[in-house]
Each structure stands twice: as C-alpha cells, then as structure tokens.
Amino acid sequence: MARVRSRGLSPLVAVILLLAITVAAAVVVSGVFFNLAGVAGRRPTAVIDQVRLVATPAGAGTWAVTVKNTGDVPITAITASYPAASCNPALTFNPLPLNPGATASATANVASGCTLGTTYRIVLTITFQDGSNQVLTTQVTAAIA
Fold first, then answer.
1. DSSP output for the chain
2. Is the CB of residue 98 less than 8 Å from the CB of residue 75?
3. Which of 78, 142, 75 has the alpha carbon at shortest distance from 112?
4. Most buried one in 92, 99, 128, 132, CB count within 10 A?
5. Do the Cβ atoms of 64 and 103 come closer than 8 Å?
6. Transmembrane stretches, by residue range (predicted)?
C-alpha cells in the first residue's frame, strides 16, 4: 500500500496563524473594553476645601468658602443654603464653570446675626455639566480673626 500525502498547511504554519488571530482578537477586545471603561469611569465629585467664618462681637460676619472639583466633569453651579441659621449670606462662586482640578471661591458679608462661638451649618449643592448633583454639608464656628 502506498501512503497518500495530504495537501494542507504544515503544523508550524497553522500554529503561527492561530497565534496571529488570537493576538488580533485580544487587541480588538481590549480596545473596546478600555474605551467603554473610560466613558463609564467619569466621576463628578467635589470637596469643600475650606470654610471660614470671621465674626465681630457686634454680630457682623464674613464667610469664605472654597470648593475644589476633584472629579473629571466640570461644575456648572454651586448653591449654598443654611439650615436654621441667622447668619446666612448669599454666596456667589467664581469662576464657573469649574474645570476638573480647579477651585472656586466665594466671600460674602453679613451685617448681623453671627454670634461668636456659635457653630453654623452650611449645605452646598453642586451641579455638574452632565446634569448630576452632589450635596456637601459642613459646619463652621464663628471666630474672631
């Protein structure tokens, strides 16, 4: 009996082609995954960097508040509210919009209602460019400069 020789790829060429196809598929899958992870990984976050309240014995006060954008979505608005407080100024933060990594500050004066040694609560509502909100709460004690 004569041996029949088949015509096909040699085992070495088949292994090389299989490896090339596997590497190409891995590159495509990783590219898609890291692109989706980058979009899904966007986080709108901010922190209150500093809050100060300097008051006089007569009841006048000066608020200074600094907010830092620690996420990767710009901040478009910051509003302040003061639950049950008599020492509540209208704070206007600048600059806005606030890009990631940057800080915005607001300073305002109150003619009366700030008592030395009293702790006041402030609530900041942060609005981000993607429409999400974050609420930050802190407190400050009125002190003499």
1. -PPPPPPS--HHHHHHHHHHHHHHHHHHHHHHHHHHHHHHT----EEEEEEEEEE-TTS-EEEEEEEEE-SSS-EEEEEEE-TT-S-------BSSSB-TT-EEEEEEEESS---TT-EEEEEEEEEETTS-EEEEEEEEE-B--
2. yes
3. 142
4. 128
5. no
6. 12-34
End-to-end CA distance of the chain: 108
Selected residue with higher pLDDT from 128 and 43: 128
Angstrom distances, CA of residue 123 to CA of 15, 24, 38, 50, 57? 64, 52, 31, 13, 25
Evaluate whether 137 touches 122 at the Cβ level (below 8 Å): yes
Sequence length of the chain is 145
- Specify the 3-state DSSP secondary structure of 100: coil
Amino acid identity of residue 110, one-letter, is V
Per-residue pLDDT tens for 126-143? 999 999 999 999 999 999
Here the tokens at position 28 are 């495509």
Query: How would residue 94 be classed by pLDDT, with cut points 50, 70 and 90?
Result: very high
Name residue, tokens 């979505």.
73
